[in-house]
Write a structure and sequence with these properties.
Elements: E1 5-10, E2 13-18, H1 36-42, E3 46-47, E4 63-69, E5 89-90, E6 114-121, E7 136-137, E8 145-148, H2 151-157, E9 171-176, E10 181-186, E11 197-198, E12 208-209, E13 215-219, E14 229-234, E15 239-245, E16 262-264, E17 267-272, E18 276-283, E19 286-297, E20 309-311, E21 314-318, E22 323-328, E23 333-339, E24 349-353, E25 356-362, E26 364-365, E27 371-380, E28 386-395, E29 397-398, E30 403-404, E31 406-407, E32 413-414, E33 422-428, E34 437-443, E35 449-455, E36 464-467, E37 473-478, E38 483-488, E39 494-499, E40 509-511, E41 514-518, E42 520-521, E43 523-529
Antiparallel strand pairs: 1-2, 1-3, 4-19, 5-8, 6-43, 7-42, 8-9, 9-10, 10-11, 12-13, 13-14, 14-15, 16-17, 17-18, 18-19, 20-21, 21-22, 22-23, 24-25, 25-27, 26-31, 27-28, 29-30, 32-33, 33-34, 34-35, 36-37, 37-38, 38-39, 40-41, 41-43
Length: 530
């Protein structure tokens, strides 16, 4: 592993300490070998990233759960650091354990334009299913992945079995489409870098690329045919080496996997809409389910569409009944429960502030009826206690073919640089107030709204950010008309806008001063901000 980031405690203050080398299964200790100056400092440190306690708070008593053990292997996390910090690129939804989108996007000065570098058109599927016609392009959450391959990795791919094209290069974009195919594109040119993979069914969510292996994890979102579930491909030979369909034991009958799975402590964790959290043992070209946590709250088994957010050995997810749950990943036992009123699909984000991890989340307006409130909350990640709550009136909206829920779908963007004290949420107001949708800039300290940026349409996409050499943050986001906005993060001033696609439900991935994003229809776009 390269550039492993270790966390250490000196006089009970958490400090970052960079150290190279080591295997992913090794725990950080005061004998790790770093450079000579750092080695002396390590002698007085207490090893960190100790596991959080196996505690159960009173709130969790409302959860009825079972943990099915399917394999005798020790399922305890092998390490606690974040392996996604060791790789160049973005290999899962929002990039890391905390899902806080630290992409490292950079611009020079004050940007004033958005331009299209390239467009790639996917197939368009006209199949009529029980759940409609899905076409092509990407849906929610639909974030592309981005990999920067080393020379050694590129050499491994250059065989007859990997499906490479003449446009394969060291910078590669991967995106799963509503048409049921997985596409591989050259980051520079937008041309296919490999032949597509057949994902079998409609894919709406975000795939994950293993941080240590060439395993690609792809969840299906809507069935065109059986089987229907989640799967894994080996990019070295293009083989689908794993598929999980409904096993009959799930407490909920819908086997969609819109959640983006994540590697924690040497294992893969994958929430499902079947009301379960699954833990897998993984190796190159191999995956085996070893434990499953199934649960009910108030007698119902909700589905999980949000992606798992992780802090050390605790995992956090929200479900479609409004439950926000903290789970000890060493035991798969719930630690706490927070009831946030309504369906919550957006992924939780985590940030450590003054040595305490906090979570940010928000719900939709679905089960409340046509008029309701999106509850935006900040929680203490250790015990689930509410820190603050911001209430935003929203409505459900009738469209010709479906009902559009109000509230929050996009995962929030935690500010950085001059916006370190802000967090940004896209809201589907649906004309509850003065807009169909808007971006809210909210103070992380107390939850007050710093400003609103109204949109003419609702916004499901997650906002992303870029900073300049002065540490100024610029926010880029899209709406359901295909409009992309460039905003001054501190004030919300609009610096540029560009009509690009048809409907941006999907979240972008940021690379330098560019972003790659897919839209409904069939377009995948690379945009440059400058």
């Amino acid at each position: 592993m390269k550039n492993r980031t270790s966390y250490i405690i000196v006089a009970t203050v958490l400090t970052l300490f960079s150290c190279g080398g080591g295997k992913p299964s090794q725990q950080v200790s005061d004998t790790d070998s770093c450079n000579s100056a750092d080695s002396a400092a390590m002698e007085s440190v207490v090893p960190v990233l100790t596991a959080l306690p196996d505690t159960v708070y009173a709130s969790a008593e409302a959860i009825r759960f079972v943990v099915d053990t399917l394999d005798s292997v020790d399922a305890t996390l092998q390490y606690l650091y974040d392996p996604y910090l060791d790789v160049h690129g973005v290999r899962t939804f929002r990039g890391n354990h905390n899902r806080n989108a630290r992409y490292g996007g950079r611009v020079q000065g004050t940007p004033s334009s958005i331009s299209i570098d390239w467009r790639y058109d996917t197939k368009f599927d006209t199949t009529h299913t029980k759940y409609g016609q899905w076409g092509g392009g990407t849906g929610w959450t639909g974030q592309p992945l981005y990999a920067e391959w080393t020379d050694e990795e590129m050499a491994r791919f250059r065989t007859d079995t990997t499906g490479l094209t003449a446009d394969f290069g060291s910078r590669e974009v991967m995106v799963a489409s509503l048409c049921g195919e997985v596409y591989f594109l050259n980051y520079e040119t937008g041309k296919p870098s490999r032949r597509p993979l057949d994902a079998g069914n409609v894919v709406k969510g975000t795939m994950s690329l293993d941080p240590e292996y060439t395993n690609l994890y792809v969840g299906q979102g809507v069935p065109r045919s059986a089987p229907f579930g989640c799967q894994a491909f080996n990019l070295l030979n293009r083989e689908r080496f794993y598929f999980y369909a409904q096993d009959g034991k799930a407490w909920r009958g819908w086997n969609a996997f819109d959640s983006s799975p994540i590697v924690v402590g040497g294992f893969l964790f994958w929430p499902g809409e079947n009301g379960s959290l699954h833990q897998f043992r993984r190796e190159q070209g191999g995956l085996k389910m070893i434990r499953v946590m199934r649960y009910r709250v108030n007698g119902s088994a909700p589905g999980i569409e949000s992606s798992l957010c992780v802090y050390r050995n605790y995992g956090f997810f929200a479900d479609n009944h409004g439950n926000i749950i903290g789970v000890n990943l060493n035991t798969l036992h719930p630690v706490w429960l927070y009831r946030n009123y309504d369906d919550t699909d957006a992924t939780i984000v985590c940030r450590e502030e003054d040595n305490i991890p906090y979570l940010y989340s928000a719900c939709e307006v679905d089960k409340q009826g046509y008029d309701g409130t999106s509850h935006i909350v900040k929680l203490n990640a250790l015990n689930g206690d509410l820190v603050w709550e911001q209430l935003v009136p929203c409505t459900r909206k009738e469209l010709p073919e479906k009902t559009l829920d109000g509230g929050v779908y996009g995962t929030p963007l935690l500010g950085s640089g001059d916006c370190d004290s802000l967090i940004f949420f896209n809201i589907c107001r649906n004309s509850a107030g003065n807009s169909q949708g808007e971006l809210l800039a909210i103070a992380t300290a107390d939850g007050h709204i710093s400003y609103r940026k109204p949109f003419k349409a609702w916004a499901w996409s997650s906002p992303v950010g870029m900073t300049n050499e002065k540490g100024e943050l610029f926010v880029i986001t899209g709406d359901a008309t295909g409009m992309v906005y460039l905003l001054q993060g501190r004030t919300g001033e609009e610096l540029a806008r560009l009509q690009v696609g048809y409907n941006f439900e999907s979240s972008p991935v940021v690379v330098d001063n560019t972003l790659i994003v897919g839209s409904r229809g069939n377009g995948i776009f690379k945009l440059t901000v400058e």
